[in-house]
Each structure stands twice: as structure tokens, then as C-alpha cells.
């Protein structure tokens, strides 16, 4: 279970660590940049420990609100597979990280782009410019490679990696993760979620039915320096769902849509300026890159049995966002701006649950 205290949402049981890495084979790594006005980083999710280009996993995405600058979604939607690790970073670093993914794939397979097809990089972003000097273009290819090397089942949450400079409901946001167990008539499966949480208006924040955002906003003990400004929704959230349930890309797209239910439970309205994207993948089987390899023969979960996975996706997403808020520490960055940790802004939070 997480090494930090946070409200427990929902009723489904969690996996052993309550993280996306409860799905066997999944690993997460961070590279964190914290140098004065540079507060940013890269987070990488690896679906398995092998070669993602040669051994692809089924995947699909849902664009809840499209105010985003990600790369690679078009081919994922068309072909329904992942070819690289999933990378998360800030908006202005998308090109740098995508180039690093190109170079990584070509270094492993010089035939790519010549004798073989090209590779589809997959990079998601949120704008961390409130705390981070995003115009410094500080993220490098080395940071992406460092996050890949650090990928493991045990990883930190909060103001780390791509989440270092992110804000959530005008509090400190960042990386959060959770897992839920889904019992179906076709078998028992794990649903894991990882979020890059950088969204929400403070007055809308609801946790387990408690209007915590309004309590924080009305708290006179918070200094004017620390008080979050009343501002419209203009952040973003990236939600990555992983499961070991045998689903195809069409079914995974249905699962990815249910992340929006977990997002809404906390008070998001998917505002005009918010880029809200959910991607789901399964580790139940792999698709070979070459037609020479045998195609997988998989007994997919019947459509009528999928509801427990929908519930698990919504609940794991909600819990992952809560974990992002409660794991994050207060961070100061560009121009002396600060985002308070919710545990600092509302130290008596346990009294409400």
C-alpha cells in the first residue's frame, strides 16, 4: 500500500501496492528536474519488460476534452497497439521526448524506417508553466532515457517526474496511481491507473462527498501568498489504465471512457482549456511486429461480463487522483510562485472522513 496517508475512495479491493504496477509486468520510472525555476520532468510507463516494438500490446484511447498537444494518438486509434513506452512530460518537451523515442527504437532496430515500418512514439503532456519555466526547454533526451532506466514496480508518487510542476485544483498535483481488483464471471483481473493530474478549479474539489475545495478556499489561515487564485479550468489530466484482462482494442476504448466517471466524481467539468485524455492497454497478450510470428489466439472476455472492469477503471482513476494530491509536497518555482500540498492547506482533513 502507499507509504503516505490518504482518503480511501470506493468499495472495490485494491491490489497489493494500490498502484498501476499491480498489473504484472508493468513498470514506471521518473526523471525529476528541480532546479530553482525549473520544476518539471519525465515519467515513463512500460507495459512489459521486453521490446515494445517487437512485442506490441493492445491499446486504445479516449479524448475527453481535446485541449492537448500529445503525439502518437492517431496511430494508436487506427492500429490499436503500443510500440514504445508511454511517456509523460510538459507541453514544450513533447518533441524532445518523441525524438528520444525515435532514436531509442532505431538504436535497438536499425531496420526501422528503412527495411521495416517507422515507429509510433507516444508522448502525453500537461502544461506545468505555473510553477515551471517551461520556456527553458529543460527536458532532454537524457531525462527520457533516465526515466526508462528507472522503471520498476516500486515508484514514487506526487511531485515527481512529469508531475513535478503540476497543479491540481489549485493545490500541488502531479503523479498518482492506484489499482482495483475486478471479479468477473470470466475471471479475476487487476485494473491499474496512473494519472498526471494538472486540472480542476478549487471550489469544485469534492472528495467522498466532502466539499474540501470550498473549505480550503474559505480558510483565512492560508496567507494571501499561498491562497490559490480564482481561475477558470485550464489544466489537463492524462490517465493511463492498465489491465491483465483479455480485451481487444475496441473493448479497451470502452474501458478508457470510464476514466471520465472517476474524474467527474472529484469535481472536474472537463473545462474548455483542459486537455483530458485517457489511454487503456492490456498485458494479457502481445501482438508480434512481424507477420512471420504467430498471431495470438486469445479468448476475449465476453462483452456482457465487462461491467466490473468499468467500475474498476472509474474507481482506480478517482483514487489515483486522490493519491496525486495527498502524496505531493509543497513546491516553489517560477517567479517565487508556490503550490501548497493539500495536507498543508488542510491539515485536519482526516476529520472529514
From TrEMBL:
Q: Name one Pfam family in it.
A: Peptidase_S58
Which UniProt keyword terms apply here?
A: Aminopeptidase, Hydrolase, Protease
Keyword Protease assigned to the entry: answer is: yes
Q: Is tRNA-binding found in the keyword set?
A: no
Task: List the InterPro entries hit by this protein, alphabetically.
Answer: ArgJ-like_dom_sf, Peptidase_S58_DmpA
Gene Ontology molecular function terms on file: aminopeptidase activity
Q: Which family does it belong to?
A: Belongs to the peptidase S58 family.
The entry's protein name is: D-aminopeptidase
Please tell me the species this chain comes from. Pollutimonas bauzanensis
What taxonomic classification does the UniProt entry list for its organism?
Bacteria, Pseudomonadati, Pseudomonadota, Betaproteobacteria, Burkholderiales
